[in-house]
TrEMBL record:
<feature type="transmembrane region" description="Helical">
    <location>
        <begin position="178"/>
        <end position="197"/>
    </location>
</feature>
<keyword id="KW-1133">Transmembrane helix</keyword>
<keyword id="KW-0812">Transmembrane</keyword>
<feature type="transmembrane region" description="Helical">
    <location>
        <begin position="154"/>
        <end position="172"/>
    </location>
</feature>
<dbReference type="InterPro" id="IPR015867">
    <property type="entry name" value="N-reg_PII/ATP_PRibTrfase_C"/>
</dbReference>
<keyword id="KW-1003">Cell membrane</keyword>
<feature type="domain" description="DUF2179">
    <location>
        <begin position="226"/>
        <end position="280"/>
    </location>
</feature>
<keyword id="KW-0472">Membrane</keyword>
<feature type="transmembrane region" description="Helical">
    <location>
        <begin position="111"/>
        <end position="133"/>
    </location>
</feature>
<dbReference type="InterPro" id="IPR019264">
    <property type="entry name" value="DUF2179"/>
</dbReference>
<dbReference type="InterPro" id="IPR003740">
    <property type="entry name" value="YitT"/>
</dbReference>
<feature type="transmembrane region" description="Helical">
    <location>
        <begin position="60"/>
        <end position="80"/>
    </location>
</feature>
<dbReference type="Pfam" id="PF10035">
    <property type="entry name" value="DUF2179"/>
</dbReference>
<protein>
    <submittedName>
        <fullName>Uncharacterized membrane-anchored protein YitT (DUF2179 family)</fullName>
    </submittedName>
</protein>
<feature type="transmembrane region" description="Helical">
    <location>
        <begin position="87"/>
        <end position="105"/>
    </location>
</feature>
<dbReference type="Pfam" id="PF02588">
    <property type="entry name" value="YitT_membrane"/>
</dbReference>
<feature type="transmembrane region" description="Helical">
    <location>
        <begin position="12"/>
        <end position="30"/>
    </location>
</feature>
């Protein structure tokens, strides 16, 4: 099996596991406590409580128009992954009901249900986002909107849509407490999903202004084996030209870099910023 085929198979394995984790969240934490953290699944919980229509049936029925829009805007491959994820989510919801029965409750503490339900839902969603799929609903709508608003992540756009749904569901149920707990679950799931997609590849970017830029740059490259970029700067007050060094390091190297700079020039000016994701040589591989 070549690498491309292996990756495709792995993508669908990840989607399957993610859908199973989401179903665990819905069956054992959210639905028994009537916590509806937005999205089609949240609406499906409300519909079930009002009409008795199973969550898996509602989840499939409401996603059909979004599938069509997703295929048109995002392409056939994305649509196929989304269709697979949504079907698998409904399959696992039904499977867990068959195995454990309906209304199996892990905890009756609604706060714990909100926290752990949101945590599991976020893990499942994050895994599916990671391989380029969604489970339909507002995460698919969020992915479509992300095409037009790239500055906002799919998870954040999903949160905006879900907040609207959560508030609406609260009015329907006339239960403010349930709405508030649902918002807690929604917040947790979005943060966890973002965390899984964006990862832990944080770095620190150093902007260094010194009277000895060449000596500092050489020490950084020799002692830390990190690349240094020279930016041309000009002081607004003095009008003098001065080189600004830019160097990105991982968190473990921050202290060492400070020592190198101040060992050469104790009067150096350093600005340190957090870089959310660093790709390329010496950091995370570009895929």
């Amino acid at each position: 099996m070549n690498n491309e085929k292996y990756k495709k198979v792995l993508d669908y394995v990840v989607i399957t596991i993610g859908a199973a984790i989401m179903a665990l969240s819905l069956n054992f934490f959210l639905e028994p406590n009537t916590i509806a953290p937005g999205g089609v699944t949240g609406l499906a919980i409300v519909v079930y409580k009002l009409t008795g229509i199973p969550i898996d049936v509602t989840n499939l029925a409401l996603n059909i128009p979004l599938f069509i829009a997703g295929i048109i805007v995002l392409g056939g491959v994305f649509g196929l992954k989304t269709a697979y994820a949504t079907v698998m989510l409904s399959v696992f919801i039904r499977l867990f009901i068959v195995i454990f029965g309906h209304g199996f409750i892990v905890t009756q503490d609604i706060l714990l249900a909100s926290i752990y339900g949101g945590l599991l839902m976020g893990i499942g969603l994050g895994m599916i986002f990671l391989v380029g799929g969604t489970t339909g609903g507002t995460d698919l709508a969020g992915a479509i909107l992300n095409k037009y608003f790239p500055s906002l992540s799919t998870a954040k756009l999903m949160m905006i849509l879900d907040l609207i749904i959560v508030v609406t569901a609260g009015f329907v149920e006339r239960n403010v407490e349930t709405t508030l707990y649902s918002i807690i679950a929604l917040y947790i799931l979005v943060k966890i999903a973002d965390f899984i997609v964006e990862g832990l590849s944080f770095g620190k970017a150093f902007y260094i202004i010194s009277s000895s830029p060449s000596e500092i740059g050489k020490k950084i490259m020799d002692e830390m084996e990190r690349g240094v970029t020279v930016l041309e700067g000009r002081g607004m007050y003095t009008g003098s030209q001065r080189d600004v060094l830019l160097c990105v390091v991982n968190r473990a190297q921050v202290t060492k870099l400070k020592r190198i700079v101040y060992g050469v020039d104790p009067r150096a000016f350093i600005m340190i910023t957090t870089v959310h994701e660093v790709l390329g040589e010496g950091f995370k591989e570009i895929k």
